[in-house]
Amino acid sequence: MAELPPLVQAMLDPTFYPHRPKEVELIQTHISYLFLTGELVYKVKKPVDFGFLDFTTLEKRRHFCQEEIRLNRRFSPEVYLAVVPISRDGNAFRLGDDTGVVEYAVKMKRINEDHMLYRLLEAGKVKFEDMRRIGRHLAKSYAAIPSDEKAKAFGSLNVIATNIKENFEQTRKYISGPISPEAFETIESWSLAFMKENTGLFERRVAQGSIKECHGDLHVQHICVEGEHIYVFDCIEFNERFRFGDVASDVAFLAMDLDVNGHPDLARAFVDSYTEASSDTTLAQVLTFYKVYRAYVRAKVTSFMLDDPGLDKKTKAEVFQRAKAYYDLALNYVTGSTN
Questions:
Q1: Which pLDDT tens digit goes with each residue over 160-206?
Q2: Could you tell me which CATH class the domain 115-335 is placed in?
Q3: Do strands 229-232 and 244-246 pair parallel, antiparallel, or not at all (unpaired)?
């Protein structure tokens, strides 16, 4: 295992933090280090470039830390606290010192992991009223987000069609794998026909102000229901294309994620509550289209994992079945087997 960078080693010491936590736990993702320090979490972005995101310079990491705070405060202002500078003096690092800054961290309130929506679903503890509350919370959050000229551009049929067609081009090589030729043809034809036949509907969505700077990654692992509080977190800050779009696409993402996890009744409760609270009169007309899109995106991303030569046979079989489940769900939406 590679040795951790000096800053990460320093941040594993409880004395690094002003509030002196009893212990520090490190969680790594492919783009971040997360330090769990009692009631607070500090996130440091890794200096990586994956094409769709670029954190390679200090200035870029500072910018995207600020964007993470700005975007997520729209949904959970209590959680996202500040961007904190980290300075270096010789071999010593200091948190909150803005002289000789070498890194930035996003400071957050720690959320109770046991109350994450996916955990509650696994435990069978999610009630219809919980999903209705989430619907109302999101409707209020989206209502406060403007639909300006920059956002509206992402609602044009040309932009939407580019995203849709890209999905099919990037998954063509998985035909006769996790997706059958017939399923591929059915989903592609339906999606292209829907756009062609509903030009006016997409134009109305733009005119109604439904195209906004949204969340972009709204699924059951990014929502927490803790008592009276609902926390929605982890917006996509690193790529505008992934978060700008129709609010219906965000709503569809969560509904689809509930469907694929076996909770279509909770999905309906959420969508009905959101629709009522938002007074979005045309959401229902585009919801299936965006559910197909979101299921297909998850199928695509999961399929990409099959290209990893390092996957063992058991893991590859599990990934294959997971990708197939998303493709099957997209097909079911198209054929009317599920709503």
A1: 999 999 999 999 999 999 999 999 999 999 999 999 999 999 999 99
A2: alpha beta
A3: unpaired
